[in-house]
Amino acid sequence: MTMDKIEKLKNLVRTNDKTFWRSLEEAADDPQVQDYLRHEFPQSGSFWDGKITRRSFLKLMSAQIMMLALAGCSKSVEKIIPYVKSQEGIIPGKPLYFATAISFSGFARGVLVESHMGRPTKIEGNPHHPDSLGATDCITQAVLYQLYDPDRSRGILFNNLPATWKQFTDALAARMPKLRARKGEGLRFLSKPIISPTLASLREQILQTFPSAKWHQYSPIHCDCSRQALFEMYGQDLQPVFRIKNADVIVSIESDFLAQGSGALAYSREFSQRRRIDSQNLKMNRLYALESTPTLTGAMADHRLIFSPIEMRIFLKSLWKLLQNDSPSQHNLLSKENQRRVEAMADDLAQHSKKSLLIAGAEQPVDIQIMVGQINHLLANVGQTIDYIASNEPASENGTESIRTLAKELHDQKVTDLFVIDSNPVYATPADLQFNEAYEKAEFRVHMGLYLDETAGLSQWHIPSAQELEAWGDLKAFDGTVTIRQPLIEPLYNGKTDYDLCALFVDRGNESSLEMIQRYWSEKNPRADFPDFWNKTLHDGVMEQSASPAISLPAPKLIKVNDDHPVGPEPFTLLIRPDPHILDGQFANNGWLQELPKPLTRLTWENVALISPTFAQSSNLTNGEVIEISKNNQKIQAPIWIFPGQANQVITIHLGYGRRAAGTIGNGLGFDAFKIQNSVSPFEIQGVAVKKTGTLIQLASSQQHSSMEGRDLVIAADLSTYQSQPDFVSRTVSPSPEKEETLYHPKEHLENEYQWGMAIDLNLCIGCNACTLACQVENNIPVVGKSEVINSREMHWIRVDRYYEGPVENPQTHHQPVPCMHCENAPCELMCPVEATTHSQEGLNEMTYNRCIGTRYCSNNCPYKVRRFNFYAYTQAEPDLIRLARNPDVTVRTRGVMEKCTYCVQRINHARIEAREENRKIRDGEVITACQQVCPAQAITFGNIRDPQSQVSKKKGHDLHYGILTDLGTRPRTTYLAKIKNPNPKMV
Amino acid sequence: MDKHEHFITAEKPDYASIDRSVIGIPLEKGFRRPWLFVFAVAFPLFIVLQISIFWLFVKGVGIWGIRIPVGWGFAIINFVWWIGIGHAGTFISAFLFLLHQPWRAAINRFAETMTLFAVMCAGMFPILHLGRPQRFYWMVPYPNTMGLWPQFRSPLMWDIFAVTTYFTVSLLFWYTGLLPDLASARDRAQTYWKKRIYGILSLGWRGAAVHWEKFNTLYLLLAGISTPLVVSVHTVVSFDFASSIVPGWHTTIFPPYFVAGAIYSGFAMVLTLMIPVRKIYHLESIITEAHLDVMAKVTLTTGLIVGYGYMMEMFIAWYSGNLYEHFLIKNVTTGPYGIMYWMLILCNVIAVQILWFPQVRRNPVILFILSIIFNIGMWLERFVIVVVSLHRDFMPSAWAMYYPTVWDWSTYLGTIGFFFVAILIFVRTLPMIASFEVKELLTHEHK
Fold it and tell me: For A157-222+395-466+492-507, which CATH class?
């Protein structure tokens, strides 16, 4: 107590009536003093001064006991390790990249996964991998979303009740003696096509142990017909690898080889290399596309010919006959127009023997595949533009046959033990197999998968599988190159791998997947330096010289293709295709993929029945009107979408929708196309009936207008035009205002040593959307949902616009990726009242999210409409787990602020820091934007436009270079290179 | 002074009768039936406004129909509409005062009050439409720790100045004009509280000669200050559009055309309100048919200017030879919102021609109906400007349709509710006619 306080106390005491007091303590007992003390020292004044009654005592005690009990509720104690000594190689804030692979149906794609402090945040392409070459596609990137999908199954279930791995292995062990005794009679496995050599060897071992067991490989997306055709011709189990770069003339028959399936990234890279031109190099390849339903490959074609499947067969046969110098008997079945075309095409191909290539789509029937194979042989393309290698998959087995056999055996109750590995046959099988009924006839049903899907619901045991980024594996690419898949993260939900499951059957349950894979490869490669070899393989993401060699083949057996044709037009042909983004439905619960506009239709969150404009007009159908498509007694109801370029009388539908147990995102979207699929002809159904239902549903298209309205947005011309007038682009584009009146320093923005700019080559862009998704992942762009897409509020910072030109029956299709233009004279900047959008010294148009108050005037005044607004709290609405996928280098935007492309400013800054540390300038090509990095066609170039030697400066000096809407005086930094087509003069 | 006569009365009232009929209204007890009826409609709408704003703040502007590319929707349409309505008051009070138009005396108070409430309604929208309304004050230049000024090149920033200045000056002008009448109310008030409240509000006005002298000087000065504001506010509001590059906005004709449109809609709204009030409170002797006639003439004049504006807008768009402007004409007239354009032409260009007939101008019922049509027309005009220009601008790939949601409508109707509630309360609490100015007119006549 300080002296003055004691004085105060004394004074207080003196005023008291009490005359005697013995000590200060006694005085302190006085209520007045007490009051004083309580005010003076409040922290010590809060002692218990109430009377304790029996009731309040009990209340207090019970509260105390409750708190004690609660304290005991925490999890069991686990050891944590303090971050005192940093782990080697991990620097907080610096990502690490690991090479691994993602598996698809029949092939794998090598990738590099960016990991921040042990948390995978982005999947990039692996430059060393033959099917990536540094690029990725949408689905590969979206596998990251799947990793963090909150709807993934989180534990082992037995009859829908939680169980353990031990319980499962015990249950399996209990069945083993019986199975062994029966030699595996009734034991069946169902998996996707196996592309893992280790798994294939495990399969062999299992089938040796259980000789009567069967292993079925099935995927709704398969190349059965191609394999069968090659087998019939060459007597071997083969798969083709195309050498697109060697081909001068390519004919695609209903094939989307640039955008889908195995090797697509490599093919589009090679294709783009043959399309890159300037006034010195005027050589381009030529692509013919014969299709009934438009594809991205068809959109790139110099000639896109529309045929119904029947016409296609006739045309192809004519072509074959012409190339054999045979008089084609079916020539007269073709129209005059087509006769001229087939002759011109045959001419072109004959002139380019050894340098031409015919590719048939995976869904094409065997006879088409045979014709294509024969023509390729006839033109001596084999070994030049096409190599045949041994099939990736073990056992030559037709997947559709296989699943049909399985279904039949199930129906006949010949199957007792069924193990379904990473497949969903209850949903994803043709309706005629009635798999859902058949499935339950097996006695012991085990499902292993990522989700509690339709099949899991009918299984006794469900085992969560480890996701691609959680598991070890060895996977083959389209050319047989092996990549070791390494896990980036511990399985989030204790998922198991297919290796783990198989090991149980051959008494290797104590081996981990890694040990099994290592053992397989060390046995196959007995070398002293195996550990080094292994490490190098892991590091590079490809195993050295593991690509399957081209098999030199004798002349194929000449197979006569049936000459008679079904005459008389069947009313409608229904084509069934895998969805371009969610495939057979395995990615149905993937928000990124659902919201990504589908190629060409720009639809999201839905599948539709694509019909031709002629049919729509004649039946008076509008977009979104629901029709009923039926064949025999199978029928589906689907909303229609009028698809310019679709063959008349042909309807196309996509698989993967109408899921009942996909998860919160994927359930109930679209319709289930499997319900009309049949296992005899899974991709093409002749003679379906179509009926109007009268209902109309709203479809979420991200682009509602397809005409350029005479504006110079995409500039396209023929090669001959470019040859005769190399400056045609500058003559076409409306000029920028000659003089700009300004009070400011006119070159104010051009003074800094770095001036960023981008050039997008429309001649190369295939419209695959990979850039859109890359940007979404890189920049933490939220998924907004179907209703918000209908409200035109999707958030993608770079969109791929699609325009049609010419007749609606067979238009020219143009793609145009549109990120922010970073105008030097940006209309948006002028309008912001709070300076939330400003220009940087390096020419970036920057958004300061924290400053934005959301007037949206910038967006109104943006002629390119690249700005995106957070109408709701989109980012806060995302599930917690998905937030783990976010890039820590990019701010997450809140409700009510504007956002847009930043030219990946975080990557620019990263490069700047690196350069500064090394005391040098940022090198050309050092800053790679997310969209640029993934582009398989390398259509996007980014860099410093002030450096005349930079790649982007060279592009901007190109004859074909132009900017869009430059007549407004915006001076965009993102500019384009015009599109050039190389048509056959004889065919025009 | 024949000219003045029919602006006052048919039965030549004396000062007392004017006081009785004008000052008597706020002092009377109870509510008249029509008043209650309108209140019963307006008040629930006012509640709807509050609910709409609450939900807006909870969820965000996503509850409205705005989207990319139509970043502005009902909020901005309503803002411009209300601000336009808020033009009549100052025009009548200040502009006509300077021009010595004595007929303004009977309607100026009402028009000014209407202006204040309309500007309040208008002022709500620019704040509500923000993505982050809690940060609206960042548009105001004030010294702050962020060390940042607003962006002075942005027309939205000019708006802040224009609207707040307009509101402040209008409020002062209105209150100054109220002083003598507040004193009259104080003098006639019977109850304790009324005496006290009117007493405080009248700021000690005794009607002394020195008061009148100072009053007249101040009133003249304020009228002088207000007059340019009549032109400036809507000019600045038009800059919100004209200074952008959007086809349909980027037009030099906007400032005069907006001002004319504003006065047109303002007069229409005065008619909409005055005609029933005049009837309910039996003010036919003060607000005569001659007043209606003059107001209708002003409406006709400004309506014709607006019509000329439409014509020139289209002509220049065509004459420019600009691809985007050409498309705009096509889209405005025959696009998906073409019906809106033709309805606006019907309301603002064709319907207004009826006012050429003197019989119509003096017929309260027809005028009342027409005034509502004009206000609908002006709302449609703003819809066409804001939405139709934005929904299809430069990049066809980004084109989209705009559909208002239920919250767009509820907010809009809610402000109408607020406006009427405010007007009704004003009618019952303050003298709605400048009685001293009417008396002045009478004096002139007695001379």
Answer: alpha beta
- Measured in angstroms, the CA of A836 and the nearest CA of chain B are apart by 9
Tokens coding A558: 């000449």
- The string over A288-316, giving b where at least 16 C-beta atoms fall within 10 Å of a residue's C-beta and e elsewhere, is bbbbbbbbbbbbbbbbbbbbbbbbbbbbb
Residue A142 · residue A934 · CB < 8 Å? no
Q: CATH code for A573-701?
A: 2.40.40.20
* Alpha carbons B29 and B32: distance in angstroms, whole number: 9
> What CATH number has the domain bearing residue B124?
1.20.1630.10
- A238-390: CATH topology: Dimethylsulfoxide Reductase; domain 2 (3.40.228)
- Residues 6 or more apart whose Cβ sits within 8 Å of residue A160: none
Averaged in consecutive runs of 10 residues, what is the pLDDT profile of chain A (988 residues)? 58 53 58 65 52 78 76 57 65 86 92 90 93 92 94 92 92 91 91 92 92 91 88 89 94 93 92 86 91 93 91 88 76 80 91 93 90 91 92 79 91 92 93 90 93 92 93 92 91 91 89 91 88 90 89 82 60 91 93 94 94 92 93 90 92 94 91 92 89 92 88 91 89 78 70 92 94 95 94 94 91 94 92 92 92 94 95 91 92 94 94 94 93 94 93 92 91 93 88
Within A505-658, residue ranges assigned H as helices are: 513-524, 530-540, 591-595, 613-619
Question: Does the CB of A805 have a partner CB in chain B at under 8 Å?
Answer: no
pTM of the model: 0.88
Distance from C-alpha of A624 to C-alpha of A603, rounded to nearest angstrom: 11
Closest residue to B68, CB basis, from A801, A830, A868:
A868
Contact (CB, 8 A) for B398 and A862: no
Nearest to A179 by CA among A448, A443, A501: A443
Residues 821-860 of A with CB under 8 A from B: 827, 830-835, 851-857, 859-860
A787 → chain B, closest CA residue: B62
CATH number of A716-738+756-981: 3.30.70.20
Cβ-Cβ contacts under 8 Å between A and B: the total is 161
Could you tell me the residue range of the domain that residue B175 belongs to? 2-446
Domain ranges of chain A: 1-68, 157-222+395-466+492-507, 238-390, 573-701, 716-738+756-981
